[in-house]
Structures are given as C-alpha cells and as structure tokens.
C-alpha cells in the first residue's frame, strides 16, 4: 500500500466517480481504476460496489477511508513541520506571471519579500494565461498572476482572487495629430493607424473588450502592425507609427519624458461626459486543494498590501 494509492482511493471515495477523481488528481481514469483494483486484489476485499454506471463505497472501503485520511493528514503535518523548521530561512517559491505583470507589477512585490526573507529563492516564469493556469493547476507554480481569462476547464481547480488592477493607456508619438490634443471621442478611434498585440494576448483581449463596450467594432480599426510584445509596440509608437493601447506601468517614464502622450477617450457628444477607462483586474490563482507552504502563505499575505 502506497501513499499514492491512498490519495487515489480517498479521491474516489469523495467523488464516488472514477473519472471525476482522476480529473481532481490530474491523472488518467485508467490509472485510478488500476490503483483501486490493485488495493482490492492485494487485500482480498471489495472497496467499492459497481452498480451499473455508478459506484458505492463498501464496508471495507468505509474502514479504509477513515484510516487513510488519518495517514494522509499525518503526512501533511510532517511535511509542513519539516518545511517550516527553518523559520523561513530557506526554501523556494514558484510563481507564474503574464509578461506585463511579471516585468512591471510583480518585481516590487518580490523585492519587498526578499528584503524580509533573503534566504528564500523565488523562481518566476513568464508565460501566457493558458500556461499559467495549467502550471498552477498541476503544481508547477505555487501562484499564478495574470490579467487574462482562466481556462474554463481549469476553473474548478483554481481559486481566484483580485490582488490589483492594470490600466491600459492609449498612447501616441510626438508627430501624431493626437499628441497636442487633450482628448478625443470614441468616433475618432477609427481615424488613425493602430499597432496592436497578437490575438489572444491579455492586453489585446482587454482592449477589444473595451472597444466593444464603447460600441466600436475592433475589426473596423486600421491595424497596420501586429507585434508579440508591448515593449516592441511602445518602441514603434515612439517612432511615430500610429496609436496603441499599452499597460500604464510600461509607459510611466515615456510619459514623463514626453516621448509619448496619453490620449483621453471621451464618449461621443450627447452622452455623459466622463472619460472612458480601460481597466482589468490582476488575478492571483492557486490550487484549491494542494498543500500551501508557510513561504507561500506569507507571500500571499504580502500581495494584499
């Protein structure tokens, strides 16, 4: 009898469904069936009754469920004690973050954490939203940080919490006609060239959703260039090629130096005259059931500050 077999058995006992247990453990359904069959064969008992397409836990299964849970709880307690013996003097935190979050929002949080816990190694991987979700669900990352949407098939495995917000600024270079204007209207958005991120990026999703909420069809904009990073887009717009929507964290210095100008978008005439903003939440993802180390717990609290 192994710990892995016990974990699989407890999942089946909880869900009373082999496929759902497999999904919860991120393993295949045949692997779940094999683990249960091996346990039953080894001890000569029936842990579950197969009744048509459903299963019921047998008396032997009820007994094992109680004892197995005690064993797993003791293992978790032992792991926790060993990991916390060093009082946050050593250890590792694994993060997955989207490009903008990882390059501009997260470094300040990491620096603050490292000042307090210099012995903790932080491994941060920059990836797209789908990779972050999958990595957090499978335990590659302790936390995922992103602004994009969570993959629907993984939503049931991940807890989501807002830890900040990201704002997009529409910016232009010095020779652009909008550079000298304090504001434009929604109806003018299709009167310039645009440089945009690739379809599916978090920034592009965010911009297109804002356009649609303003009554603008994104396909009607004159897109002259599509690039794979907002840094590249920023450089192109600084060299006077069209307009772009860029996270404000990325253009702070350029706006201060006036190499770029942020353009305020106003509703069309006849509509309440309040500036239109492009805001999106920064999400922290973590697995709902995986054990959380003390290191991860402390960092999570710091993200709220």
Number of strands: 12
**So how many helices?**
10
Succession of helices and strands: HHHEEHEHEHEEEEHEHEHEEH
* Unreliable stretches covering 5 or more consecutive residues: none
Distance between the termini: 45 Å
Strand content: 15-25%
Q: What composes the largest sheet?
A: 8 strands, mixed
Mind explaining what this structure looks like?
This protein is an alpha/beta fold. It contains 10 helices and 12 strands. The chain has helices at residues 3-15, 18-25, 29-43, 59-84, 99-116, 129-137, 202-213, 230-238, 252-257, 294-303; strands at 48-51, 54-57, 91-97, 120-126, 143-146, 158-172, 183-185, 193-197, 222-227, 243-247, 261-266, 278-287. The strands form 3 sheets. Strands 3, 4, 5, 6, 7, 10, 11 and 12 form an 8-stranded mixed beta sheet that branches. Strands 1-2 form a two-stranded antiparallel ribbon. A two-stranded parallel sheet has the order 8-9. Strand 1 (48-51) and strand 2 form a beta hairpin. Helix 1 (3-15) packs across helix 3 (29-43) and helix 2 (18-25) crosses helix 3. The longest helix has 26 residues, at 59-84. The model has no long low-confidence stretch (mean pLDDT 89).
Short summary:
The protein is of the alpha/beta class. Helices cover about 40% and strands about 25% of the residues.
Looking at this protein, list some descriptive labels.
305 residues; alpha/beta; 8-stranded mixed sheet; two-stranded antiparallel ribbon; 10 helices
Q: How would the blueprint of this fold be written?
A:
Blueprint: H1 3-15, H2 18-25, H3 29-43, E1 48-51, E2 54-57, H4 59-84, E3 91-97, H5 99-116, E4 120-126, H6 129-137, E5 143-146, E6 158-172, E7 183-185, E8 193-197, H7 202-213, E9 222-227, H8 230-238, E10 243-247, H9 252-257, E11 261-266, E12 278-287, H10 294-303
Parallel strand pairs: 3-4, 3-5, 7-11, 8-9
Antiparallel strand pairs: 1-2, 5-12, 6-10, 6-11, 6-12
């Amino acid at each position: 009898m192994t710990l892995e077999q016990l974990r699989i058995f407890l999942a089946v006992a909880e869900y009373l469904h082999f496929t759902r247990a497999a999904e919860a453990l991120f393993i295949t359904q045949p692997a779940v069936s094999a683990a249960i069959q091996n346990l039953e064969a080894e001890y000569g008992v029936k842990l579950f009754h197969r009744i048509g397409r459903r299963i019921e836990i047998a008396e032997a299964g009820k007994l094992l469920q109680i004892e197995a849970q005690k064993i797993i709880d003791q293992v978790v307690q032992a792991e926790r004690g060993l990991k916390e013996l060093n009082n946050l003097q050593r250890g590792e935190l694994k993060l997955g973050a989207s490009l903008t979050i990882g390059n501009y929002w997260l470094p300040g949080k990491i620096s603050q954490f490292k000042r307090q816990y210099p012995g903790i190694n932080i491994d941060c991987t920059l990836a797209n939203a789908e990779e972050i979700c999958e990595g957090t669900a499978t335990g590659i990352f302790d936390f995922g940080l992103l602004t994009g949407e969570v993959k629907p098939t993984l939503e049931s495995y991940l807890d989501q919490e807002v830890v900040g917000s990201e704002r997009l600024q529409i910016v232009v270079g010095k020779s652009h006609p909008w550079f000298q204007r304090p504001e434009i209207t929604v109806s003018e958005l299709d009167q310039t060239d645009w440089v945009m991120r690739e379809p599916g990026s978090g920034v592009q999703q965010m911009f297109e959703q804002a356009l649609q909420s303003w009554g603008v069809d994104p396909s009607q904009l004159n897109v002259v260039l599509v690039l794979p990073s907002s840094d590249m887009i920023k450089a192109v717009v600084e060299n006077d090629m069209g307009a772009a929507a860029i996270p404000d964290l990325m253009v702070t210095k350029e706006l201060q130096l006036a190499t770029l100008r942020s353009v305020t978008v106003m509703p069309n005439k006849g509509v309440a005259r309040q500036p239109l903003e492009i805001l999106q939440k920064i999400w922290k993802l973590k697995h709902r059931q995986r054990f959380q180390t003390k290191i991860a717990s402390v960092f999570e609290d710091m993200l709220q500050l």
